[in-house]
User: Fold these one by one.
Assistant:
Number 1:
Amino acid sequence: MSAESESVDLLVVGSGPAGQKAAIQAAKAGRRVLVIEQECQVGGACVHAGTIPSKTLRETASALVSFKQRSANLFEVKMSPDLEVASLMARLEQVVKAHERTITEQLRRNHVERWHGRARFVSPHEVDILAVDGTKRRVHAQLIAIASGSRPRAPKDVPIDHERILDSDSILSMTYLPESLDPVVDPGDALELYVVSGVS
Ligand SMILES: Cc1cc2nc3c(=O)[nH]c(=O)nc-3n(C[C@H](O)[C@H](O)[C@H](O)COP(=O)(O)OP(=O)(O)OC[C@H]3O[C@@H](n4cnc5c(N)ncnc54)[C@H](O)[C@@H]3O)c2cc1C
């Protein structure tokens, strides 16, 4: 352990579901735990790009469609396509923020420390944490849990430009609905979007 290192029992890289569970379990067992997250908010892909966004969009879209269908004979419900996307995204932001708050509070309640920065191993028990302002802190940990998740695959033969060819992250930033979608790599994500948007 280098002289300037801080020390914890468990260091967790990543605040997605895997990192959260590891951190909370260890904290409940009385360990000093530090979670490192490179994004400014906790939750990982699950909250920001995966499960929660896709299911929130799907549920909101289903509710809208069902409301339109059920009220069809009583009064007319009409929304412009732009407004439909805007309402879906506004609802998504509310749900994501609620999840972030719950996770942050759960970590705080269990006395799990959290640093914002990118973790990099310098030895089997030491990690450097690079903050966004360029400062670096070294931490020594008896145990290190790597819960760094995954990122969308970018096959060499698929020129993902995030405008016409999107991956599962950039599809969440669409501000309009396309007329049609063709799944290139993962039909699962595209299918979820078909359900949400009703595009062909
Ligand atoms: C579109 C989509 C839909 C999905 N739907 C479902 C579903 O319905 N049900 C389901 O069970 N799963 C679903 N998933 C999968 C689910 O999101 C993942 O399985 C889950 O998020 C994995 O959790 P994790 O903690 O391993 O990693 P992640 O959630 O990816 O978290 C990893 C975290 O580590 C951080 N990190 C990485 N490297 C570093 C570093 N060096 N230093 C500091 N921090 C770092 C990242 O910023 C990230 O926040 C879906 C995924 C996608 C993309």
Number 2:
Amino acid sequence: MAEIIPSPSLLATLNGKVAVLTGGANGIGAATVRLLTSLGAKVIFCDLDATHGEALASELGPEKAIFVKADVTDYGEQYALFRTALAAWGKVDVVIANAGIIEQGNIFGLTEDLSQPPSMAVLDVNLKAVIYTARLGVGFMRQTGGGTLVLLSSMGGFRGNPGVWVYVASKHGVYGLMRCLRSVAAPQWGISVNVICPSMTKTGMVDAIEDIWNKAALPANDASDVAMGIATAATANNGDGRPGAAKPFNGKALFISGSRFYEIEDNIDRLEPEWLGEQNSQDLFKLKEALGSGEIWDSKQ
Ligand SMILES: NC(=O)c1ccc[n+]([C@@H]2O[C@H](COP(=O)([O-])OP(=O)(O)OC[C@H]3O[C@@H](n4cnc5c(N)ncnc54)[C@H](O)[C@@H]3O)[C@@H](O)[C@H]2O)c1
């Protein structure tokens, strides 16, 4: 496992880049808007929360930041967000799928009314809308020569956390989307894709567990730490990889804990013959080679 140290010279390459970010009015998204603009990037961001979104955009000024009120679960509203970026600044270089919500209630609770379907709002915001953002991001960045796609997963994207069942399923889904995209988007379209997997980060989303976290003396993050991880992933196309991580810096997962950044996907790949078995690993490698970019699924429709 490699600890990734953010590089000031690589972060400086964000100067002049155009970033599209979802969920930028509060928490990690707002910290990322602040960090990227402080590095010289222009950011267009959306949120449902127009009060905080507009306040942040007007504080930073229209040369640096544009706020668009949009619901990420509405494809048309996300499309309009990307069109606005193109109209304002002529290109899209960085796309960050950040908007997310946490689960309310317990769909497996014994007092649940089983005659009614549970709410799938978490899946809609955290996975369906992230697929929308990724699709639009790839489509718009391909038009202007490539870029970087950064998807917010979570520590719940690679571990189970009982109680937030749908949240964890959604974040595993985001992680899986990265694993599909990485072998095509970077080599064929010039778009690096990486996931960010923060542990507990002090934002409104996790008020409910902050006390438990602190009592257990577990390492926590500030929103600005996660913003730094996102900015680091946003520079993935620049530099010669990252010390300790396999090259290129594509298809990685950055676990962020106690304000430190750890690349965790390389070892999962490297140790596959151990956890999956040598023969199974070889067979699945052959299958991957045979399926290539996956066009076979199109041609069979
Ligand atoms: N805080 C943590 O401990 C933590 C840990 C791991 C991953 N994450 C992930 O980081 C991301 C940001 O979370 P945060 O902690 O900053 O939460 P937050 O609640 O502070 O901010 C989330 C933002 O997303 C916006 N949003 C929610 N639904 C939306 C919708 N339908 N359309 C547009 N905007 C919408 C909210 O209005 C809010 O501004 C999320 O994807 C979250 O799952 C957070």
